[in-house]
Amino acid sequence: MEFIYRVATLFLLCFIHPCFSALVQEQPLVLKYHNGALLKGNFTVNLIWYGKFTPAQRSIVVDFINSLSSTRAAVPSVSSWWKTTEKYKGGSSTLTVGKQVLFENYPLGKILKSPHLPALASKFNGVNTINVILTAKDVAVEGFCMRCGTHGSTKGVSASARGVFLWVGNSETQCPGQCAWPFHQPIYGPQTPPLVAPNGDVGIDGMIINIATLLANTVTNPFNNGYFQGPANAPLEAVSACTGIFGSGSYSGYPGRVLVEKSTGASYNANANNGRKYLLPAMWDPQTLACKTLV
Q1: Which of 210, 211, 238, 265 has the most crowded Cβ, counting Cβ within 10 A?
Q2: Three-class SS of 199-222
Q3: Do 117 and 123 form a contact (C-beta atoms < 8 A)?
Q4: How confident is the model at residue 114 (pLDDT cuts 50, 70, 90)?
């Protein structure tokens, strides 16, 4: 079953109804465990590039995923952010990039329907794999902008054989005010200057935020019976429960206090392999029952 990352809906509610945000904060944030399987152990992340991406753009994503389970970077690091997932029923999820395939000729066209996503994900089969579909800025996906990405699973002959996948779109030209915020001004709310993207690419740096969100949501709620709050068809999950929070002191329309690279003015909160820097969203911590930020 497909899971939807409803960042746009929550994002708009926080801006349109400030009282709504306050009411949410007053409620206990507890993601209930529904006794289902989580993704623990070593997993290969296969990348399916649909549309045209430059080599530089692809390297930003590859470096991010390979940094999740690496200890080479200085703290605060991408790996220290990812370690919070270990608190979900114990055990770690080690992710490394596996195979990559490029569909630069748009074999399914430039307008994709929801059923196209699991079909693309099925290009790779295997045990302990997560298939990630990344669509280029000129590809329209059904529901895009109302959702910045989604994760789901495909049926197998047994529960252990079920595949998991996620999709994230490049929102550089389609809806950057929703899916590339805070690197672009929001479509609603305070029109404060956007942050400078740490890798110089608003679309790709925005994708990193959503890839991070969906990878954490996937390993902690892969089959719709893991950790979540609310209805199963529109759940608040590990990171989507903390939408809009990137640093301490955040509030609606303000991402919080983050680090700034002096030479470029770029905002970030996580160091990574190959000298990369990324801005990562807060993740709900099962021990503190609160959204945890790196800075």
Answers
A1: 238
A2: CCCHHHHHHHHHHHHHHHHHHHCC
A3: no
A4: very high
